[in-house]
User: Fold these one by one.
Assistant:
Number 1:
Amino acid sequence: VRGAVADPERIVICDGFTQGLTLVCRALHARGARRIAVEDPCCRAHREIIRHNGLEAVPVAVDEDGIRVEELARHSVSAVVVSPAHQFPTGYLLSPQRRAQLLEWASRTGALVIEYDYDAQYRYDGPPVGALQGLAPATVVYAGTASKILAPGLRVGWLVVPAAMTDAVIRHKVCDDLGSNLPTQLTLARFIERGDLDRHLRRLRRSYRARRDALITALRRHLPGARVQGIAAGLHALALLPEQMNEARLCEQARGRGVSVYGLGRYRANPRSGAPGLVLGYASLAEAKIKRGIQELAQACPSPA
Amino acid sequence: VRGAVADPERIVICDGFTQGLTLVCRALHARGARRIAVEDPCCRAHREIIRHNGLEAVPVAVDEDGIRVEELARHSVSAVVVSPAHQFPTGYLLSPQRRAQLLEWASRTGALVIEYDYDAQYRYDGPPVGALQGLAPATVVYAGTASKILAPGLRVGWLVVPAAMTDAVIRHKVCDDLGSNLPTQLTLARFIERGDLDRHLRRLRRSYRARRDALITALRRHLPGARVQGIAAGLHALALLPEQMNEARLCEQARGRGVSVYGLGRYRANPRSGAPGLVLGYASLAEAKIKRGIQELAQACPSPA
């Protein structure tokens, strides 16, 4: 479905993307790597995992076309973690030109691209976007997870590893825990074979799309000053706020009204840099609750945003 | 049941003992440890896990009373991995005197004792033997696993960690994979609560005891020169062979006859040292098969052993 080149002997089942990234970091570290680039902003845990494994996490800015490859190319790094189908948390799609640039950079420098394909199953508008790995399977580690489509508690993820690196990643997996929980793997395999996963995803896409639409409608009505981004896919949207707004204070006030939102700063390498914004997860909320939440959020705003 | 001091906030569920030892090694390494003692002979994987995590595995000889604490005390190590209830692979029980010596050593040097309590549920003769951890919960990491009582594919193990070390071990677990498979944990909890685990173990003990008895009978009859050790408990026995026998050749010839046995050398730090012996796992074999296997083994012997 994702257009990945996934020969069985290159697939490593792991305990979610957390362990997947851990294994790749360890394999890279063992062959001398010391610095890995991450998108800025990105999931905070990724920076922590990279550091925890003795590597430096080098932030590289993201714009509306995805990671800025020109900036990436100015750093000396052994790998980069990207989410091309729906960047977290901006929701931007890596543009075709940037994809080509990124793969060209990787092939020129010998660096590895770690493709975190966490919510590609949820695309609501526009044509489907294939995985980067399908274009360069010798350069890209593809990483998927059941956490965003079934449940994080399953701790099931999958890596598709370039042939030259497979043995090293497997060695780390075996030495760390011998393998992932087998009953869950067998159950998931059956779930996929029977077509249940496809049915499940179709149902979720319908439901999440309706929630996304409810979010957009509510934002337009109650927070017309917010610029909504990254809504063609995924489980969350980014609402960029007018420059003068204090993102941290708004989040705090919203929380006081029972609305749990995070500011964009939470995900930046430097929390105080860049334009203010809110990351709004909508997938787990019923439409009425989304509407009420945005109303409360608008009330929390010091002035009409 | 094991007499361990197991407050819930000190228990870390992990992916089997493999990950449990990995987490403890990482936590020790992070606080400056560089050398960990292991019993000699011991499970080969333990030495590999220790080395894989940047530590040196220091072998310390085992005799019929368990690990030789006097020898251990001559090394400078931050921890020691022991299996006091049924040493692997010799099957020896750590004697009461050695237990006291070991804990005294640990308390004097500040070293950690890692108690691998892998098959304590299977005790056939003599009074039950409690866990070492119950005597010194601030000094001992207790480690158990579902691998030897249910199935290795579950990847469920448990650590009980000294209070001073719990946060560090949890931090490594969270950073490595966020947590272990949740459906399995919930299922196992229900299995224990309903008394099913106790019933399961009573059934296994009966069955394994009969298999052990079949093994002893067959060895006495067909290999009267072998000295059988460590049979009061566990899932395997050690058959010490007459000095002149070539353990490796015997294993090879037995394998040629379809009998899969391992020599004691496989588990030693120096495979060519010490008396020849065979490690005979019997728990998974029906009694008739055990009898036939020992007959074949006797045939493989160059001379009456």
Number 2:
Amino acid sequence: VSSRKTAVDPPDGWSHLPPEAKCLWLRAQPPHQSHELFLHLTTREQLELLLALSQSERQVWLRLLPPDDVADLLQAAGTSRGMLASLLDDATRLQVTALLAYKEDLAGGLMSPRFVRVRPDMTADEAIGYVRLQSHVVETVYYLYVLDEDQRLLGVLSLRELFSCPKDRPVRQVMRQDVVSIPDRMDQEAVAQIFARSDLIALPVVDAEGRMKGIITIDDIVDVVNEEASEDIQKFGGMEALHAPYLEVGFARMLRKRAGWLAALFIGEMLTATAMARYQNDIAQAVVLTLFIPLIISSGGNAGSQASTLIIRAMAVGEIGVRDWRVVLRRELPLGWMLGVCLAFIGIARILLWQVIGGSYGSYAVALAVTVGLSLVGVVVWGTVFGALLPFLLRAVRLDPASASAPFVATVVDVSGLLIYFTVARFVLRGILL
Amino acid sequence: VSSRKTAVDPPDGWSHLPPEAKCLWLRAQPPHQSHELFLHLTTREQLELLLALSQSERQVWLRLLPPDDVADLLQAAGTSRGMLASLLDDATRLQVTALLAYKEDLAGGLMSPRFVRVRPDMTADEAIGYVRLQSHVVETVYYLYVLDEDQRLLGVLSLRELFSCPKDRPVRQVMRQDVVSIPDRMDQEAVAQIFARSDLIALPVVDAEGRMKGIITIDDIVDVVNEEASEDIQKFGGMEALHAPYLEVGFARMLRKRAGWLAALFIGEMLTATAMARYQNDIAQAVVLTLFIPLIISSGGNAGSQASTLIIRAMAVGEIGVRDWRVVLRRELPLGWMLGVCLAFIGIARILLWQVIGGSYGSYAVALAVTVGLSLVGVVVWGTVFGALLPFLLRAVRLDPASASAPFVATVVDVSGLLIYFTVARFVLRGILL
């Protein structure tokens, strides 16, 4: 009994091997193991390998893959698509063509067309026998789907339910009719939310006319959940989603994914220079004000980052929807206020302490402390509210809420934070320093 | 056939109802539906409901839950723990006590002790009959675990394999011996990675002596993956993980989760004020330098945020390990360099353009542009490298890499960014402005 390694792990250094070396290594393994390994590679790796193999080997290996994986492979194959498709048997080619009609991130692109279909008038025992016959060609034997002559889904029953009912009971009387089914054009993120709520290991996919087209199994959903979380996390870090493992993304592609957003944020942040130019005379008169600029604007950015992260994630897992913006605002406004007061308290203490110890700020220490304290409250409240509401705004205009990234929120809050700070300063320090 | 709603969805506004109202609503539903709904509530809601019910109802509802869910419930029950435990039947109480010995986020805390055990000398047909008998008391019927007299795991076979083999073949000859099993003290994040790689719907959990203690099913893994991603995303946004849905966290708890990190970052960022105080004379002589402070330090923060996000996520899904820091450094160093050059180019163009249009920067425009450009390259390279390596550092000292949050990286880079900027300025502008 192995503990940490799975039976399908590739050898160390695998990802650095050229496709030809991978072929050699695979040929040297017992078929059972090399097949298992091949089935668990990424689509890109499977494609590389297939193209490196001889024509006859290619056919054997390609036919190992279930139709949904073949569809992903053909989608990535570019000019080799026709050649690879010609290696499939006719039945599979038909299924794959149907799958290719769907975009990869829709329910239809995730499903497998190989499921157990039964008729409503079969008995439980007949149905079990039927499962036994089909067991090697279907994606899962654990659910049986009851269809009418037009392939419309009438009900579903699990193998477990079939086991615990009398042998001669017709399927029609055992099946559940309140079936959770998934429209073939539903986005994969929504599909993952349904799985997360339902605890089922497979769900049927139906088209607009209620005809069953395939099933989605939960092992694919684990991948979807991981993928969607990676995308959100990367967008949240202020870049485009990679859609591939870090080490597999080439230098040029990585640069493109990151340079675009970084440059956009930079151009946005240039407004801080413009804003500060307006206050150049104030700064010249009260250089001490500049000392607290990074402190104040970054606090707004951090508060905004917290709020936007929370909201983006809660939206992604379906905890809150677009309509909940009022509820969120009612929570975040007092929260931002309290957080701002906390920081203001620390900031004021810091200034007064430095004053007592070193006399750093001369006769205007108290006025300066008041300026910094009030600005912090203003900036943190604004950062929190802006960070919390931006994802709703993006969603309302049909953009991805995850684009309300920490750097993006920080950039907007930096510019407005400067305006808040200098406005407060002019008001409080008038006649003292300005 | 319903499409969007699952059969277990609570009614609208459910989460705002007091527990007593929830009880009333549940009692009014047909038992099948109210039981389903109850089973899919969060642990906290189940507990609230149970405490609001009468003693006799409580027993019925509590006994609906599988042992792993009961264990979670008792863990959350506080002073009611003994009372609730007394309502269980003896067998379940024993199982639950065994589960409670594990921490919630370890494999042992996720597993269910209810699985199908068979002996190696049973025939395939006997085994199928046995599954039929056990089908209503086990978590899944889809895998059969072959154990010896000491409960040591000998092998596993799926119901599907059992179906496609001759009826009189002994289980010993059908079972697979190269079983992937999970140590009972493995962290749930590592368990999720094994599931993501293996495509199986259940995996056995064994203790240090190889005795099988239970199974983990993939539907729980979807929850784990979502949970871990939420935790990472929240930490990444610069706060403590909530461990609960956004709308269910009370005001005081939310404040605590956010105020701590915000205050810590604020105190760290106070170093910027200290750093700038060192350059107060430079600033007084060259106020124009201050205009670009937010621009330069935020660019370092943004570059660092991109790098740390990528690395944290790649670590979380197991794409890279602690040993890969050299590979990462070799990629990020030239990347940071290119990104820095891009931004420097834009920054220099901006200064020269403003100079040509409005003569904003007088005779020292070129020197200023050079200062800003060089600083940008330095700050972006440093931000990228620091952001990429910090997760490795945290991991090396056994802290969570996800603590290398965007705000944390930005705070460190802000302070060092100021030092870089003023050092470059002193060097370039000596004799011109300083």
Number 3:
Amino acid sequence: MLAFLNGKFLPEAEAVVPVNDRGFMLGDGLFETMRVANGKAFRLTAHLERLARGAEFLKIHLPFDLKEIQKFMALLIEKNRLPEAVLRLTLTRGSGGRGYSAKNCGSPTLVMTLHRLPPADPGELRPWSLITSSHKISAGDRLANIKTSSKILNVLARAEAEERGADEALLLDSNGTIVETAGGNIFWIDRDAVGTVLTELSGLPGITRAVVMEICRTLGLAMNQRVITPEQLRQMEGVFITQSALGIIPVATFDGQPVPPSPRVRLIANAYDQLLQQECF
Amino acid sequence: MLAFLNGKFLPEAEAVVPVNDRGFMLGDGLFETMRVANGKAFRLTAHLERLARGAEFLKIHLPFDLKEIQKFMALLIEKNRLPEAVLRLTLTRGSGGRGYSAKNCGSPTLVMTLHRLPPADPGELRPWSLITSSHKISAGDRLANIKTSSKILNVLARAEAEERGADEALLLDSNGTIVETAGGNIFWIDRDAVGTVLTELSGLPGITRAVVMEICRTLGLAMNQRVITPEQLRQMEGVFITQSALGIIPVATFDGQPVPPSPRVRLIANAYDQLLQQECF
């Protein structure tokens, strides 16, 4: 597989960064994960806009403009002959000195790598088991809206889920209300409405979360954004997770209890697959 | 300058890691920063113990035992002929697949780099100007005790200080009480006592913080650990910051107001320099 690194296409094994790259030393960077279908990144503009917002927040200068990045991305997919894939883009502040100060940094580092899709069709994903993580997100943290590469909390929450035999972990803030999962956003069905966490409290503004809200409007499904605790989520049916790599992932169990299924989840997952086809083919 | 990378000594420019190193992708690692004097790392055992505790918490297997790391460290200092320096040690989970799961990772990555001391004698550091950061640490976050390489919050807090013409940023938790600074721990003089943040609330358990507490016991200075807000800190004199690279750094101004100096700070800084000489020479 070829990787993209700072304007060049290299065999993945040769794509290396100096040990003084601030991404490696301090998690001083950003990333985006995109679903590639038919050689095109789904919702590319939304991902690139989020990247540009993050770069502005972190004051990292994008080494290429978004149009150029888009061209490199298309080339990477083409060169690897992998039209169905997941693409990860990483942007870091580049090489720098020891310590936190971002003064005197070199040029930013831009990496893109392509990854095979999990064996099954994403639309047919095995439902996940979800547990509540013991790790907590800082309530109202401004950084929660930025997809930085300082992701140790998410790594540990996912590891905690796996240790407990589960697939994914639900993250609460320090007030005990639900924010997101280690790798996605959370939805549920509450009587007739599709529920999700209030945008202001929902952590990272997920691109797939926005797609689901769009689908609900198109299908005329009522939406209900709210503050919710794990106890309240336990009363809901049709819980599902959204993320860019895998799309819509139904939740089978939450903290060991089965989640009652809802036909609405299949409806939304089908609409998502249709949209993906429509926009990428 | 030579760097140490996974058992080898390489010119720094050749010390590179794959772009799929989890340290680079997700800040999935740990680090330690040590003051090297007379070719010896000051309080080495404390640093290595904290590293080992962190590695256990993150479930990263140390690729060498602590005795071997110590030998490599001595060799690095010797080979570079830099007996007065700052040494950074970075340990990451190594290469891994896309996504948060730490399953199927390769061998951990261990890096050590040596850095020149700032021009002035650390004992004679220019006092710093300190501001209160707008970034918040999650109150009671278990991860706050682990020196992970997911340090974007500290990077942004330091950048905020520099933008406001200051040297360092004070970090509060979401309850508004002081935790630490972007790169160290905070102390002050309160009448006759040396004050610092309660251990349970003080974020990272600083090695230099522990040294200062030891010095206070030796000198017979009263200690006062407490919960403190920026408003309360403003009433104190002799505010100073502790960190492993630079030692004791007096604070000249806090949020633009001059901090009344205290002779106790010089007393503690001198005792720190003596201890460093005593243990390393």
Number 4:
Amino acid sequence: MKRIHCTYHVLSSAAEIKAGARAMAVEQTVEVIEALFTPEINENIVGRVESVKPLDEEQTRWEVQISFADHLSGGHLPQLLNLVIGNSTMHSGIRLVDMELPDTVLSRFPGPQFGIAGVRRLIGVYGRPLLASVVKPYGTPTEAFEKIVYEFALGGGDLIKDDQNLFDVDYDAFCRRAVRLRDAVDRANDKTGRRCLYFPYIGGQFAETERRLDFLLENRITGYLIAPLLMGIEATRHLIADRPLVAMGHPSLAGVVFTSTDEGISKDVYLGTIYRLMGIDISIFVNAHGRFSFTREQCRKIVNRLRRPLGDLAPVLPCPAGGMRFDNIEQMSEDYGEDACLLIGGALLGYSDDVEASTRAFLEEVRQRFDEKTVAPEG
Amino acid sequence: MKRIHCTYHVLSSAAEIKAGARAMAVEQTVEVIEALFTPEINENIVGRVESVKPLDEEQTRWEVQISFADHLSGGHLPQLLNLVIGNSTMHSGIRLVDMELPDTVLSRFPGPQFGIAGVRRLIGVYGRPLLASVVKPYGTPTEAFEKIVYEFALGGGDLIKDDQNLFDVDYDAFCRRAVRLRDAVDRANDKTGRRCLYFPYIGGQFAETERRLDFLLENRITGYLIAPLLMGIEATRHLIADRPLVAMGHPSLAGVVFTSTDEGISKDVYLGTIYRLMGIDISIFVNAHGRFSFTREQCRKIVNRLRRPLGDLAPVLPCPAGGMRFDNIEQMSEDYGEDACLLIGGALLGYSDDVEASTRAFLEEVRQRFDEKTVAPEG
């Protein structure tokens, strides 16, 4: 039997940490006092405390390693999350910072359908980071949005997606706008001979989401933006697995998982490994030095989890967003390398009135640092 | 146009709080710099900062009130959450502590199908808190579980549910166990002339969840336990709305939303109002003085949000769990009153080897403090 290995950072006194670690292992598996389980349950089901080490000299912060039998997750995402952190999220001072899954668990997750390679095949661009932008702000007439996406594609942009605030309650209004923006991008693509992609935002009620995804499939729109924590972690996995569309994951609400420093799940485990298990193809996270509190080290760890080998799951395209400016393209290029998607929204729209020229200028800055190769897009 | 009124607690210096509050209002609605939106967008779409007040003398903590136009939520739960906290969850020191919804938004949510009144009708018990227990630990043979649920029902218990760790990967194994435990409860009900309910845990993959819920409907099982944050907030709302079954909400993983004191969403808004919008009929939360860090004041606030008037949404049965003991039934009776469901798991199973006698003893303690009325269960 293989095991799931988890590492936690725990706030505790030295006197209490051993009992505390054991309590976590019990809480997350059987949730009863020791008197109520048998030796067999203790051996096969209760989590096993593998190690307990102090993280500081004062012995107030601890690294606790606990392993769990692989069969307990059932290979299902909700049960895996319940197992590795579940009830322990309700204790102060417990944070999941690492999760290593055996192949017996990983093989139950198909992972990204496109991933880095699949997205590149659709766009036909290799050797440099992709350049992405955002359709916003909500409340702008569709004509103006058409102009933005058309000029972005004409300027050489690779992918433009709706803002997650851009939500039409009405299904027909959603369809009309999606097709108009798709057509605007296509008109530019016809001129450039390249293929820029347009992804609408998919949110709202679950049934409506399914209907909208079906519409995209039937109308030559290759992908979409979704916010997994709004729709649901398992629900997002289900929606992605159900249809051959590129899924771009947005972190709205997801800060509840990782922003607290002492609780929740680390940014890299959540936006890296858990997104990958969901099957997200492009993971949006916040670039360091932006308006949110992500550090370069945290961003590097997210990227590592998205791209490193993980069973047979395809690598995910990291998409740092927020805070990209002309003067930090150098830093972003260094930090993320060629297999990334640089997302620039407001800073691009605000750079000049001419979105085409702005896109060209940003893209040129990226191209200077990489060895771009383009091929005919597939499909 | 009516407005959604939200209150946040924000960590900030006095010098930065005004700009910070405005930045939140912009971030959650249009997410672009001010130069990029028109006066019409500012008036109709951007959130409006209603007030900013210090919470401490040092002026390091602030109460910020922001209102949003009702139409921005679209009456859909994912868009509502995106609007009221979305990207702001990624900032340190911002916590949503109140959310008041106008009837134009509330009317889009059917809410609980059963609620307090519906659950009471199924069980036929009025005038006192219901007594609930848990089927656990995982790894126990089904025969032993049959004995537990049979004896609990015979002792007068009202509702017994699976532990959220109790997950059969195999569909047939799930069905067999669910029917056996239903039958064991029914045998006791035939003897007592009362109706104790048994709720299986529904987790795992989304499609599997739908299949299992259908099985319950077809097999006279009236409700289920679900962990909304594992399955998904909107996905849970969808599953509940789709089938006439009693939904009991479990907080596994949900601690990420509320355990941090400075970020996320307060316990009462999440486990109270947001659970109610999802349509949860019975909301499990952690009783004060248990092994988790819930205070009596926080529990009272949760209960208030579950039971108080909220548009046409039915009141939800509060279900304090964890830490219930013989010696704090007095405190729990005082804190929660008659319209609650007291959940006692390990402490009941560990009270004596005789679950029937233990249940009777706990129930007697509850009955002494209330004026019980029983009627024939409906349906």
